[in-house]
Amino acid sequence: MIRFLPAALAAALLAAPLAAYAADTTPREPYGIALEGFAYPYPVHLLPVVNDGEQLSMAYMDVAPQQPNGRTVVLLHGRNFPSSYWAPVVTMLSEAGFRVVVPDQIGFGKSSKPQGELHFDTLARNTIALLDHLKIDKAEVVAHSLGGMLGVRIARAYPDRVAHLVLTAPIGLEDYRLYVPPTPTEKMIESEDKLTAEGYRKQLQTNYAIKLPPDAITPFIDARFNIKGSPDYPRWLRAFVSSGQMIYREPVAHEVALITEPTLFIMGADDHNAPGRPNAPEALRAKMGQNAELAKAFAAKMPNARAEVILDTGHLVFLEAPEKYRELVLGFLGR
């Protein structure tokens, strides 16, 4: 039996790209721009919020543990991922006794897509409003990717509401304005609209060094491209591009070293994601995205921080190395 395993594995690997291509070329059933039609692992609730005079709804999951330890974790998602991708981490934390609150930020997932621009300060206020609504005075904040930038903003603006901060493969550890020239919003909209599902899959695999099988990436493709059939797709697209402009225009790299709350960086050694790098001058591109080294340098400057780097892991650290991630997070939060 064992001697045939390599052949079977090779056949599976050869078949996987074909299956992925077939999935990408199959006609897509449209989702709504609030991801209607896309299943989440737990019931979704809606919190009314007002941003810049606009009435909006913030979606969130609120998962209670069977044996509560009296503590709450808030999970902050990345830009290209609906909060449903936190499902394995929700299970991990709830089994350890934590209540787990999982919001979709305004502009993302099942939350409203605003007409106005997105700003980290506004998203931070929304998140605190959610904690107030749920009567949570203080929470552990576990963030990923763009959520890491938001986690920094929350920790700086509302330090008394954050017990511990876990920055999982965060972006924003450098100021991208130092490398990338500004890009007009309309040009970004045009570029994003031309992107195909197959091109997006390649983009995720290249930018994020993902160590997951193709079928594990497909839900991220679906969550983005099934929306194209919605009549409200242009509003979704503008909100998505606004989030890219927010990353560029509102850096947090100059604030990271000022965080005083206990902070843990968990980095993938192969994660060199740097938003906007293709638009940077070629001479500067290689300097961007040294994320693990940046995290270690920040941790050395901070009063209560450390950085852990997981080998052979890309941007989706908690899905690619779940056991090591569990060990690091629960060990850190258990202090």
Question: How would you sum up this structure, described in words?
Answer:
- This protein has helices at about 5-25, 85-95, 120-135, 145-155, 185-195, 195-210, 215-225, 235-250, 280-285, 290-300, 315-320, 320-335; strands at about 45-50, 55-65, 70-75, 100-105, 140-145, 160-170, 265-270, 305-310.
- With about 325 residues, it is of the alpha/beta class.
- It has an eight-stranded mixed beta sheet, sandwiched between helices.
- Mean pLDDT is about 90; it is low at about 1-25.
Q: What's the tally of helices?
A: 12
Rounded to the nearest angstrom, the distance between the terminal CA atoms is 46 Å
Helix content: 40-55%
Question: SSE order, as H and E?
Answer: HEEEHEHEHEHHHHEHHEHH
* Rg: 20 Å
Instruction: Flag low-confidence runs.
Output: 1-24
Residue-averaged pLDDT, rounded? 92
Number of strands: 8
- What does the largest sheet look like? 8 strands, mixed
Tell me, briefly, the overall form.
globular
Strand content: 15-25%
Structural class label: alpha/beta
Largest sheet strand order: 1-2-4-3-5-6-7-8
